[in-house]
Amino acid sequence: MQIFKEIGPLKLHLQHKRKEGFSVGLVPTMGALHQGHLSLIHASRQATDITVCSLFVNPTQFNNPADLEKYPRTLEKDTSLLESAGCDVLFAPETASMYERAEVIHFDFGQLDKVLEGKFRPGHFSGVATVVSKLFHIVEPDHAFFGQKDYQQLQIVTKLVEELKFNIQVHGVPIIREPNGLAMSSRNQRLSEADKTRAGILHESLSDARSRLLAGKPWTEVQKDIIEKINKTQDLQLEYFELTNRNDLTNTTNVDIKNGILLTACFVGSVRLIDNMLI
User: Fold this and answer.
1) How many domains does one find in the chain?
2) Which residues contact 149 (CB under 8 A, 6 or more apart)?
3) CA–CA separation, 28 and 90 (whole Å)
4) What parts of the chain have a pLDDT lower than 70?
5) What is the per-residue pLDDT for 181?
6) Sign of torsion, CA 223 63 5 25?
7) Are 120 and 136 spatial neighbours (Cβ–Cβ below 8 Å)?
8) Residue 66 contacts by C-beta under 8 Å, 6 or more apart in sequence?
9) What's the pLDDT score for residue 103?
10) pLDDT tens digits for range 108-159
11) Which of 51, 72, 137, 155 has CB atoms 3.0–4.6 Å from 32's, for a disulfide?
12) 3-state secondary structure the chain
């Protein structure tokens, strides 16, 4: 695996590979890698000739400075995992390389970035769109791979590609879970074992809600029961548990259940986790 920290040498390397006829896949990450990230690497390797993994803790998508500071940084371990997974190129730039000056460009995705995560993390998706646009221009991939755990982010990136006419195919890769159903996340490293056990209620609640909805139970009843159950669990503080249309995430009334998605965000102790489940 070849490692690049500067943009110029990476672009030159990939230009040579494209001239040789190789297709390129990009897996954007913020590091602290786990099996969910590695599933993206495997998906890219199956679909493309050259897999590039970017590892960059992007400051512009954190609306909480303390969260940015606490975000785990494990470059040495991540490098070893990527080599074992067969990644071809690691791009690990410094912040100064990605942001030479203060950010002045901001993205607006209409209602799509104002609900759910956008409501609780204002400015988050503008930061995501900014760094993803930069990575797309630097790497010029044919394919890009994102985890479905960050479902709203996946929709934002898909919209970004459509609106800015990037010649890139975006792939959503299914969630990888812990044995108790907890969605794998870099933030899980900050959870105690007791917290991880308690956090299993998120997947349990999504599964329960899905089953009850498919059985014809009204959403208002299901949502009320789930919220009460989660909020009664020690050290859990729910932010939202919503049912919406999976295509635009903005319609929370008269949702076609078979085209719906359940999404949730919850604090487990001081760690904020998100999860979702397609109906």
Assistant:
1) 2
2) 36, 175, 183, 184, 185, 274, 275, 276
3) 10
4) none
5) 97
6) positive
7) no
8) none
9) 75
10) 999 999 999 999 999 999 999 999 999 999 999 999 999 999 999 999 999 9
11) 72
12) CEEECCHHHHHHHHHHHHHCCCCEEEEEECCCCCHHHHHHHHHHHHHCCEEEEEECCCHHHCCCHHHHHHCCCCHHHHHHHHHHHCCCEEECCCHHHHCCCCCCCCCCCHHHHCCCHHHHCCCHHHHHHHHHHHHHHHHCCCEEEEEHHHHHHHHHHHHHHHHHCCCCEEEEECCCECCCCCECCHHHHHCCHHHHHHHHHHHHHHHHHHHHHHCCCCHHHHHHHHHHHHHCCCCEEEEEEEEEECCCCCCCCCCCHHHEEEEEEEEECCEEEEEEEEC
Assigned domain for 150 exists: yes
Last residue of a domain, one of 123, 146, 173: 173
Q: Which two tokens stand for residue 27?
A: 């897996």
Residues 222 and 160: their CA atoms lie apart, in Å, by 34
| 178 lies in some domain | no
Task: For residues 27 and 66, state if they share a domain.
Answer: yes
| Alpha-carbon span 80 to 187, nearest angstrom | 20
Count of CB atoms within 10 A of residue 151's CB? 23
Is 137 designated active site?
Answer: no
Q: What is the pLDDT of residue 248?
A: 86
Q: Report the CATH number that the domain containing residue 22 is assigned in CATH.
A: 3.40.50.620
